[in-house]
Structures are given as C-alpha cells and as structure tokens.
Amino acid sequence: METEILSGHIEVDEKMYSQYQLADMFNINPATAAKGLNLLADANIVYKKRGLGMFVSSEAKALIIDKRKSQTLGKLVKEIVKEANYLNVSEEELVEMVRVEMREKGDSR
Amino acid sequence: MTVVRCENVSKVYGNKNGTQALTGLSVNIKENAITGVIGRNGAGKTTFLKTVAGFLRPTQGTVKVFAENPFHHIKVAENTVFIDGTMMFPPTLTLKDILQEAGRFYKNWDVQLAEKLFSYFALPCDKYHHQLSKGMKSTFHMIIGICARSPLTIFDEPTEGMDSAVRKDFYRTLLKDYLAHPRTILLSSHHLNEIEDLLEEIFIIHQGENRLHLPVDEVKNYAIGLTGEKKVIERICKNREVLYKREISHQYIYVVVKNDLSNGERVQVEGDGVKISAVSTEDVFIYLTQQKEGGIDDVLERS
Fold first, then answer.
1. CA-nearest residue of chain A to B176?
2. Number of domains observed in the structure of chain A
3. How far apart are CA B195 and CA B188, in angstroms?
4. What angle do the packed helices B111-120 and B134-147 form, to 10 degrees?
C-alpha cells in the first residue's frame, strides 16, 4: 500500500482501498486488512472520513519516505556494516562498493 | 457477538473408562469471523466440531449455539452445515441431482454458484458419489459447504486428498464468498501455514483443552526465537518459560520464548550478540502442543 502511494498510483485525498478490496487483492482475511489500514491511520498516512472510508493524507509521501529511511534503510545499513565487519571489509572498500552499485543503477536508468 | 459458547465441556466416548476426547474445554467463537481450529492428531478437533454442530452430546458442561443447546436442535441444524470426509449421500442420486436437492435443505443455497463450481472443478454430473476419488469427494463436499451459505459453516479438514491447485482454489473461493456473504466459519486443519492468511482467529486445541485462542496477528507475535551463545541465552531465559530449545553446536543454542521483551531488553539482548528472529504461527502451534520436553532430535539421539 505504501509503495502504491509512493509511486503515485493513489494520490493525496484519494480514497484508499477498503478492507474488503484489500482482502480480495491479497487473499487475506478482511480483519487482518483492517488492522493494516489502522496501522497506516495511526501513522497519519491515511485519515478516516466517517462512513466513507480511508483517504490518503497530504503528508503521506513524506511520512512514508521518512519512516522507510529511518527504519528499513537504517536496518539494512546496520546489517551491511555488521557483515562487513565479519568479513574484514574496510570502510573505504564498503563505501566504494555502494558507490559502484549506485553508479550502475544510475546508468541503467 | 458470540455464536458458539462452550463452558467446561468434556466428552468421554463409551463408558467411564472410554476415551476422553474433550477435557473441560471453554471457548467463545465470534460471529461472522473465520476461526481456524488447529490441533495435533487426536487432540479433539472433530469431537469439538461435532459437539458444536449438535451431532454429539457432551458428557459434561454446557454448549450453546445461537443461544440454544445444539444437540438434535432443529434451529441449530437448520442454520448449520457440517462438512467432513465421511459425508453420506443417497446412493441413487447422481451428483447433479444432489446439487439440485440440496436447495431443499439449505434455505440460502446458491444453485448457480454450485453449478459453476461443479463445472470449474470438472466433476462428472452423471456419476454417483461413491464413484468419486478421495480428492474429488472432498471437492464436492466443499462445494456443498460453500454454497449452503449457512450462518454457521463448519469444515472439518476439508482439504483431505485435494491436490494443491484445488486447495488454493478452495481457500480463494471460501474467502471471496465470505466477503460477499459474511458468516461464522469454523475451519479445522493440520496445515496452519496454508490457512492462516484466511483466518481472523486461531483456536488451538491440545489434549481436549483450549490451549490458545487469539487473533492471528497476536499468534504471529506470540513468540520469538533467540540464537546465540549458550551462556548468554541461559541468562536471558532465567525466569522465562522456554517453549523450545535446540542446541546448534556446543557453544550455540536456539531457544523460543514468549515475546515479552521490552524494547530496552531487545536492544540489550542484541548487543550481547544474540540474533532475534520471528517464529511462524505454525511453529508456535508445534511448540505449544509438544507432548514431552525436547523434540524429535532427542528420540533420534537415543536410538
């Protein structure tokens, strides 16, 4: 759902999928889908309109980017550093690896 | 709202020395939710479901279904469909006849859906029930269970003998029909990982008792796995209930404990070089229903 908002498939103030649509899309119990939606609401990524459903908030994109940077990316970086330490990879070497990877990604774009 | 209410229910088959299938089981089943009834072989799943359906009279305790005692009760029978592998049908009716006749028993019967599913799963119309293979019988029963749209729908191991493609189609059909027509569904299975996405609540029966009854997401977070040096792990496990323990090597050990670590404790534990991992609902189920201390490794070691 977050990826859908990030990629702009669902715009600000547009209606989010309902728990029943989500249940159908992901083949999950609607109660589980509702809990997922509530998590987004708690994070202010969506807001509730009584009787109408959930809508994407104006700060949704910024919030998601922020959260992913600090949580997902932060965690991955921690893991990488840990692994690098195990393998005795130096800081310069690691940074260089990241640089090469980013350049390659950039070229292919 | 609660549809099924069991209080201190026991069931002994035969005389006093007979098999005890349920031992003081108490549980409330939520209305219009899909609840998975999970247990090891012989845990009492079928006895529980048959008692709820009104097929069996409990030896002790009270069972209420739609606020009535379900045993041979017409109102309960009318609103319940019970599906298992041993269903019997009149031997003179073809499968197609049965689909037509079922409408007289179930007031919400959807004959169109039944016929569509029937042809989708390529069941032979003019054959008789006893001519079907095990998997096809299960498929046929499943169609009846879904199309009856009973307010209380009970599936006792419905996927026995079905191939994996049919099983997937069955779960999808059940979910979609439930979304369109919410109802109370009890689904028993050995394969928790296969059905957990479908469920709202998980009810684990162990040795005839209620071992655990929680929403699925709480079972997912019920326990955590810790891998690390023996000394460190043993310190952490002091004053904690260890659900499972396996020695990886002389120094390293893997344990499963209840997920009651505070954020501070987590950071501290990770700082001590312990790896924290999630424990799947299936594994939670296995550890909660372990017969004895230790697992299969202990048996194999001795032999």
1. A24
2. 2
3. 9
4. 160
User: Do the beta carbons of residue B117 and residue B146 sit within 8 Å?
Assistant: yes
CB contact, 8 Å: A27 with chain B? Answer: yes
Contact B215 A29 (CB under 8 A): no
The answer to whether residues A54 and A91 belong to one domain is no
Using the 3D structure, point to which of A41, A60, A79 is the last residue of a domain: A60
The answer to whether B199 contacts A24, with C-beta atoms less than 8 Å apart, is no
CA–chain centroid gap for B58, Å, is 20
Which tops the pLDDT comparison, B178 or A107? B178
The secondary structure of B175-240, three-state, reads HHHHHHCCCEEEEEECCHHHHHHHCCEEEEEECCEEEEEEEHHHHHCCEEEEEEEHHHHHHHHCCC
Share of chain B above pLDDT 90, in %: 70
To the nearest whole Å, the CA of B162 is away from the closest chain A CA by: 19
* Residue B32 scores a pLDDT above 80: yes
Same-domain status, A6 and A36: yes
The mean predicted confidence, pLDDT, of chain B is 91
Burial status of residue B83 (CB atoms within 10 A of its CB: 0-12, 13-18, 19 or more): buried
**pLDDT tens by residue, B170-220:** 999 999 999 999 999 999 988 898 999 999 999 999 999 999 999 999 999
pTM of the prediction?
0.85
Contacts of B220 in chain A (CB under 8 A): none
Beta strands B201-206 and B34-38, pairing class:
parallel
Total residue length of chain A: 109
Q: Give the whole-angstrom CA distance, residue B116 versus residue B112.
A: 6
Query: Tens of pLDDT along B124-140?
Result: 988 999 999 999 999 99
Confidence of residue A67 (pLDDT cuts 50, 70, 90): confident
> Which of the four CATH numbers 3.40.50.1240, 3.30.450.20, 3.40.50.300, 3.50.50.60 does domain B2-219 have?
3.40.50.300
Question: Nearest CA of chain A to the CA of B198: how many Å?
Answer: 5
Taking CB atoms and an 8 Å cut-off, how many pairs form between chains A and B?
30
Task: Give B123→chain A minimum CA distance, Å.
Answer: 25
User: A53 and A17 in one domain?
Assistant: yes
Q: How confident is the model at residue B240 (pLDDT cuts 50, 70, 90)?
A: confident
Query: What share of chain A in percent tops pLDDT 90?
Result: 11
Domain assignment of residue A65, yes or no: no
The pLDDT value given to residue A85? 87
